Amino acid sequence: MNLASTIRELRTASGLSQGQLAERLFVSRQAVTKWETGAGVPDVENLAALARLFDVSLDSLVAGVPTRLVEPGAVARSQMQVDISREIDFDINAGFAHTVSLAGSSIEKVQVTLSSATIDDIDQAFKVQLDTRGPHFDIDVINTGIVADAAAREGLGIEIAVPARFTHAVELSVNADRCTIHDLSGELELSGSIPRVELLRCDGHIELDISGDADIAAREVTGKIDVNQINATSMLHLAQNAGFSAATKGKLGRRTLRFMRDGEACEAPEFPEQAPLAIELAGRSVELTIDMTATSAR
User: Which domain holds residue 269?
Assistant: First the structure.
């Protein structure tokens, strides 16, 4: 399914007319018509707004296979927000969740939204604590104990939006089935048990300290990705028009880089001297396969 069909299907499934969707996104009805007929394409901000409105991950929306952040018909939703007017570092502890979305936004606010189709009293089950008193902006999603961590991992969706222009660095710790990060620049560190990671339109230094095997997708990412793991076998899917380089780091333990294209193992490509994206594998007893199917590297 292409993007135009995806937008039309999500709109109708949500019971919205083209005019109502246009009002929610602050665009004209004619713009929505163009999106749904393929005569036009939403810009980055409108794509992100569509993903948030329909509760799907941005990467899956663009791919035409929308994956909901929470099940359709979610019965509980909670949101907190605070204004930001200066450059700041974020330290985020999201605890346990089914899905987590971290996005750079054009709005000068921090927004944290919790949603669930299985946890009824979400306001009582979880508290969001925002603290700007220290050198970092701390965001903590706290489980009050009403539901087990296992229930949170099965049914809690967390969406965090931070102002892109004021975000210098982010440390995000979470245990979730999937984490999507998009439209962020600067220093980014992601840690926890996360089998599925999606990176979209990010630029800077990204450090992935993920426990266990992981399936990582990187689309339009520039800068550097450090993958640090122990006793893991992971996959990195690249969707890059530009080249990349890859290397291992460390003296103790085994670190293995492999490459594949179109489902078949292949030799490492010739890496450019100044690659737009540098990939570094560190840790012990770790293997990383880089899938180059959607890249121009040869």
Answer: 212-298
| Cα 290 from Cα 292, distance rounded (Å) | 6
* Phi and psi angles of residue 51, each rounded to the nearest 5 degrees, phi first: -60, -40
Residue 39, token pair as written in the block = 């005569």
Query: Which of these, 146, 145, 48, 129, lies nearest to 92 by C-alpha position?
Result: 129
Q: Which amino acid does the sequence have at 81?
A: Q
pLDDT score for 203: 95
Number of domains in the chain: 3
Position 38, amino acid:
G
Residue 205 lies in a domain: no
What are the b/e assignments for 147-175, b being 16+ CB within 10 Å?
beeebbbbbbbbbbbbbbebbebbbbebb
Q: What is the pLDDT of residue 71?
A: 46
In a domain, 206, yes or no: no
Cα–Cα distance for residue pair 176/167, rounded to 1 Å: 23
> What is the arithmetic mean of pLDDT over 228-256?
88
